[in-house]
Amino acid sequence: MLCAKITVIVNDLKKTDGSKIDFKAIKVGDGNSAEEIKKAKLASHGIVAKDKNGKLVTKVDGHTYGKDKVQEVVDLLLGTKKPSTD
Question: 3-class DSSP state for residue 69?
């Protein structure tokens, strides 16, 4: 089941950034989620963030993060934050 905490965060961000980013909260097991998780080299679930051409920008493993981490991913996608080099 999709983590309720992350669903709420994503839905809130859709309200402010939904015109600039195509947010998709996909339950693991739906669609091609298993393939996307494998391609992103995630353990089992998390965030897979791609640019408009489908290129992986960043990923976040698991779901122990909160709104700050999700906002960081959004900022990377919008180009308002540079990727970390660590």
Answer: helix
Number of domains in the chain: 1
CA distance 45 to 61: 6
One-letter amino acid identity for 14?
A: K
**Residues making up the chain, counted from first to last:** 86
In tens, the pLDDT along 24-37 reads 888 888 889 889 99
Q: Which residues constitute the domain of residue 58?
A: 4-78
Q: Is residue 86 part of a domain?
A: no
**Which amino acid is present at 62?**
G
* Structural domain contains residue 72: yes
